[in-house]
Amino acid sequence: xxxTSFKLLAKYLPSTYxxxxxxxxxxxxxxxxxxxxxxxxxxxxWSERDIEILLDELASLDSNNFLKNHGxxxxxxxxxxxxxxxxxxxxxHGLGRSGDLTEVQPKAAGSSVLYQLTxxxxxxxxxxxxxxxxxxxxxxxxxxGMSLTLIFLCLRQQQPKARYIIWSRIDQKSCFKxxxxxxxxxxxxxxxxxxxxxxxxxxxxxxxxKQIDPDLIACVxxxxxxxxxxxxxxxxTVAVLCKIYRVAHVINNAYGVQSTKCMHVIQQASxxxxxxxxxxxxxxNFMVPVGGTIxxxxxxxxxxxxxxxxxxxxxxxPIVDLFITLLSLGSKEYKSLxxxxxxxxxxxxxxxxxIASRFGQRVLDTPGNSISIGISLPSVKDPKSLTQxxxxxxxxxxxxxxxxxxxxxxxxxxxxxxxxxxxxxxxPTGYLTAAATIGMTxxxxxxxLQRLTKVMESWSTKTIPIVSPSLTNGH
Amino acid sequence: xxxTSFKLLAKYLPSTYxxxxxxxxxxxxxxxxxxxxxxxxxxxxWSERDIEILLDELASLDSNNFLKNHGxxxxxxxxxxxxxxxxxxxxxHGLGRSGDLTEVQPKAAGSSVLYQLTxxxxxxxxxxxxxxxxxxxxxxxxxxGMSLTLIFLCLRQQQPKARYIIWSRIDQKSCFKxxxxxxxxxxxxxxxxxxxxxxxxxxxxxxxxKQIDPDLIACVxxxxxxxxxxxxxxxxTVAVLCKIYRVAHVINNAYGVQSTKCMHVIQQASxxxxxxxxxxxxxxNFMVPVGGTIxxxxxxxxxxxxxxxxxxxxxxxPIVDLFITLLSLGSKEYKSLxxxxxxxxxxxxxxxxxIASRFGQRVLDTPGNSISIGISLPSVKDPKSLTQxxxxxxxxxxxxxxxxxxxxxxxxxxxxxxxxxxxxxxxPTGYLTAAATIGMTxxxxxxxLQRLTKVMESWSTKTIPIVSPSLTNGH
Amino acid sequence: xxxTSFKLLAKYLPSTYxxxxxxxxxxxxxxxxxxxxxxxxxxxxWSERDIEILLDELASLDSNNFLKNHGxxxxxxxxxxxxxxxxxxxxxHGLGRSGDLTEVQPKAAGSSVLYQLTxxxxxxxxxxxxxxxxxxxxxxxxxxGMSLTLIFLCLRQQQPKARYIIWSRIDQKSCFKxxxxxxxxxxxxxxxxxxxxxxxxxxxxxxxxKQIDPDLIACVxxxxxxxxxxxxxxxxTVAVLCKIYRVAHVINNAYGVQSTKCMHVIQQASxxxxxxxxxxxxxxNFMVPVGGTIxxxxxxxxxxxxxxxxxxxxxxxPIVDLFITLLSLGSKEYKSLxxxxxxxxxxxxxxxxxIASRFGQRVLDTPGNSISIGISLPSVKDPKSLTQxxxxxxxxxxxxxxxxxxxxxxxxxxxxxxxxxxxxxxxPTGYLTAAATIGMTxxxxxxxLQRLTKVMESWSTKTIPIVSPSLTNGH
Amino acid sequence: xxxTSFKLLAKYLPSTYxxxxxxxxxxxxxxxxxxxxxxxxxxxxWSERDIEILLDELASLDSNNFLKNHGxxxxxxxxxxxxxxxxxxxxxHGLGRSGDLTEVQPKAAGSSVLYQLTxxxxxxxxxxxxxxxxxxxxxxxxxxGMSLTLIFLCLRQQQPKARYIIWSRIDQKSCFKxxxxxxxxxxxxxxxxxxxxxxxxxxxxxxxxKQIDPDLIACVxxxxxxxxxxxxxxxxTVAVLCKIYRVAHVINNAYGVQSTKCMHVIQQASxxxxxxxxxxxxxxNFMVPVGGTIxxxxxxxxxxxxxxxxxxxxxxxPIVDLFITLLSLGSKEYKSLxxxxxxxxxxxxxxxxxIASRFGQRVLDTPGNSISIGISLPSVKDPKSLTQxxxxxxxxxxxxxxxxxxxxxxxxxxxxxxxxxxxxxxxPTGYLTAAATIGMTxxxxxxxLQRLTKVMESWSTKTIPIVSPSLTNGH
Lengths: 475, 475, 475, 475
What we know:
Oligomer: homotetramer
Radius of gyration of chain A: 25 Å
Low-confidence stretches of chain A: 468-475
Helix content of chain A: 40-55%
Mean pLDDT of chain A: 94
Number of helices of chain A: 15
Structural class of chain A: alpha/beta
Largest interface: A-B, 109 and 109 residues
Shape of chain A: globular
Largest sheet of chain A: 7 strands, mixed
């Protein structure tokens, strides 16, 4: 509706109602304009209705939604199914142009604005949540593994001779594969055992840097958020080394946005040393479906090169999901959820400590991990009996626990990993992990602890533990 | 509802109604079961209602939708916004596992089935539409450019020494960038001018193959669908050469599924020669939003390697869009739209011929292009005046035309392209192209022709053509 | 978005895209403004997207959707469930005020405009479809029976002494109950048998009018659309009588809008005689869910009195459904569906004739019914065997047939009806009816005829007909 | 999906996943079956997803959604617009049959079950919320005024001689019109002033009952929830009188469900005296859009007669809205909202007291009203200046206040009401009311008080009060 519409409405309504309706409309427009002008993550969440109206407004700027448009190109964003059209808010053109993921699309002005806004909101979110110095970022329509690959491919373009990526071992296959798929050879640096915690072997990293021509090293990849008993990598020290030895540094901050600790170390690392890019999953940190990351950095130019590296267009779906969610939550609600997560982490830890002690076990001491918690499991003859513990929990509708029996090996792309899953060839005990992540509720913790107790009870009666040497000795 | 529900309904309803309701329900279940069993693209389209119910059923198999599920992992597919949840049918886990895009996800059985089904439907669609011999395919949640990059990265893993990709020039930036982003060096083979048509320089391709060690060549990339006056590549001959010289062959079948011609040459190429993979955009061929491709091939093992190459998870959104659309259209409706496209191609050609002749121009003779049509434009002093033609059409809500002024050059990733846009360094005339693609309507053609006439009228009065040598001479 | 928004967009987009987006927006606004200004049923249907945007715009004018509104009344249109909010487009205030159903609501300007617009569109639809002289109408959120009751209650207020309603018998319970619920006593005038057709006994109606003080007669109620073998009432003659004897005349035009014949007789009746109001179901004529009627008339003042008679507010749901549907179809599509219906009526008739003759029966000759068709059934000992025919069809998923065994009686509110269902105490044969109504498809007709044949086959082998006198004799 | 489907899934998934998916499905079915079996308002609210799935399941039982159904009747629930179909969950047949609103529809088994379930849930809700002895109820697709009319029409059928309804005056037009539209003559009993509160004149009611032949009195209508300074009627005493004098008693419990007080007096009245029916608005009590009531009573037979009185079918929309909302909230959440309302009532009262005292006014002492609060306003020369107060609040986006200037009169259907709006011909002061109703938030109260203060400030500087006699004297 426009000025003319409101004039016409005067035939339907008394003038005071028309005036009030206009005022109300202006209030909504003001909300939109504030967003367009400030490009900041709003503190107060928006109603779904306002978000939908804004999305409709933006979609109206895309040529496929022009009432009089007629297309004679090969890509006209025609959408055959109205179900598909609706779930995509009639946005059909995706993101980017051939030249650059973040470039404006002539046929899709609305989609282009939407993408820019989402990137702005994402940047503001990273700043608000602990990395105030971040300079640029974009939301990649790729999950973490592929986003890392994209960064590595970009690094290759800058440094064509590079062959290696130094990698502080973390036993998640996609991290490893992100290296090999990009065509690099990983130099695996196993973390060292500090008490019960696995921490970054910065010495070894430095040794490697000294040994190998820096032109051959694409980057070091570190990881913040991870499963206990691995700790958040010592990204600060690595950043300093990278600065000294002129090696790029890429941080996998997979689900670290929800943890002030993870965010803080990135901020510090950027101050003291070198951080070229850090990547965070949108699904794990912002509770959207799998499919996006925020690729961020402290150098506008490098971040821009990454997005320029992306060949062609991409799905805007992960961007739309994040846009809606950021607006819907607002920073206030997000922070409140993050605080709640922290409290539930404590609750989970205490609950696990009780259960562990009841079965003669203990919570692994991993002060460097603020999200995931491990409890030791008795040594058993058959490692399968440990795995059963996980399956039984899963069958009782507990998802997300991880049992590491400490005896498996795995070959991935030709590299053998002893004790795959443990991040370490020689971790002294089997264990079970659980994590407190954003969006979790007290009921989740409570139900998990109850079901774990039941499963442990039935399991411990059936399983004969090996008399095992006390873990605390000798570490 | 289950058996018990129907027993309980007997308290609400006469038994005959209960029986009839059960029968009706069985009919729907039968529809679903046929799909699960046959894994074929149904001939008759489904109603949106049935599609939604099936999607709801599948989503119910994902653990995040289990009523009693409690998650303690780092990725539990929690969805913060109900707007986001609904538009994704409560599917949150995306696709794939770290190991393989097509692997079953333990927490997301429904999503896994959905993906397998979509891949099955896509395979059947390719078979139905002209490539009966296709052996395997998967829907990649990536647009064409990035999908090509993924295939090239996979080829590198198989052939670590490879450095080059032989590329039959097509002036779409993302095609070129798919090579450089993957870290390869393109060997550009410019098409040759045959009359007014640009056709594959197969001789030069063979020459290169003879000259260079095949271990250094990752593949040849050809393209089927393209803008006139470039023709569909001679993929059959290239395939034969690839077989002879043991070089991989990747076909960009971007929007060729809608053209029986493009599909036919792929089928033939696979019989006579070598085709490792061919890629088709889901948006351009199946009228879904940008974001997916079908990566297909004639060797199960190689296609599987490509999907295994993908590191980690991915958005399921492009898959959901395609799944809905394939079921919604059914093969019957799709074929009917494809036939309509063919008729509109004729209509468009005839209309353009009339307009062209009125302004002393002609339709370029490009029998090898079944989708895009070009009309010559007069030579002008200032190439910008040609570009204005395109802008004026765009401002009159005609999208998709392409004006090639034949005088621009462009440097992409260090490679200079003379006459960028023309697929050729030296095309003898400027021209305007338009395409007849699937989903187009007669009204689109009619309106385009009307508006083009008006724009040409006003434009020709303002523009002074250079007296130019007749184009037909000398070519 | 407003002017300011577009200025802000210039930071995101090149100015030409901003301009084009504004143009596109103006096109949409123009569409809306045309509707607001002309208040006519558009010829071309609107897209769902445009309809939804307009509904959102209108809902934004309701105070419960004002961003800053705070309510301290007892009715603030708070909507607890977001599912409910969405399905109602956030419209919560319903229709009307205590004073009048069509009055503007201060808190719900948008809903008020929506209602006025729907009434305007409905009026234009009635005019377009055959009653050009209609002066006023409103969409009542009541189905046909209750709408008739409302009119009768209004007549009572005008004529407090009235006790009777003269009713040309039609065997639909709700028609009869609309009289008794309104507190009137029906004077039942049975139609007379003209050949095989049941036609209005206008003589008897006149006799009654002569006998009874007109002050005691609230009105005559006639019916247009009905099940064969009853014909459309002779509303023209009744209208003339009503004019002469100063008796109100209410026409139940239940599903007559789809039939040019039914509409024509109403138009003629209004010219020659007296028609106070005529009522048409929205679901049966416009393919929306049950729940609304259009109450129309030729005297603005009387129609207005009916809407003023409605005490309090009402659901706007039936209005929203009709509004969407009228815009979505447009008059062109509706007329095309109406033409199709007419053709299917012929198809159905021919098909039934064939089947009937095969089983020694015939299509009843009812030229005065343009929607419903009857075929005679053999006389049988047990009338239940006739009813089984209907059940068997229903179990084979044919809905809507009606078998009249011609032997049942029914007492409704103290009145006994012999041969309930036949509209006549003494119809000479049992029969089965089927109707061709708007929205029907050729597949519906074809499948019905197939299934009827099968059912008749199996039924006729099991049933022993009484040797019955030929029906055609003696009529 | 059925057993066969799960067998087929074994080709897609490991058997443990299939098993777990089946288990999850059973959990959902169990939820549905519990509802179907117990017919109780669940304590815990359901997720929107589960509600939608149940609605889909129920809709699948309606013949218009049978895959193979072909309709040849005049009412086949065809839905032309898919937007309309979706918003109605593909339910097209509405409620009821000609015979009875609550009767099962052969073509719409699912709709019929839905309606029965909603009625069951509504009954359980009334019981849970304070009227445990309620025997029967149904949700009428009519707002309060028309529902009262329906009850009165039903009373007429039982008592054909009745002419009068005794009505304890409440100044809401629709209440009054519900009487006149039903064709009755109201005998208006003005409440009496008790302190500042208006309470039921039970003596006068008894006097009338003594004077008039009970056969001429259709019923007494009392009202619970109302605007201050009127109190909830003394329904208990009236009920006792009705029992003694054998007069029917209908209670308008408009928005009283949210108040334990209003519910309690109804329960008590039913025990001590006579209550034939009580009516409550679904929108005001359950936060759904306007359009429904729950008509309840303590005699199954009478309640059933009311629903049988309804002629024909009706919209199921208000029923669907209530069904969703009751399931979505669950009794726990509703009770919590009701408790919150009670607290906000105190907050509002205290806030108003402060503001009132600041401007030399006071909160009216009305202990018999638990929802609405009045504050006195100064006497002014021009009553319009009082009304301006309300308008100014409305323009500042405060809706729902009511200013009674105490000087207006109104004629409705021939009856003159002095001081219309005040429920009394002679209330001693002007006043402003505000109400605390369910769904209100603390922010609503806070913002209202702030804006009221501002408006009062600006208003009091402009308005010259008449020196008025102290209100507390003489009453």
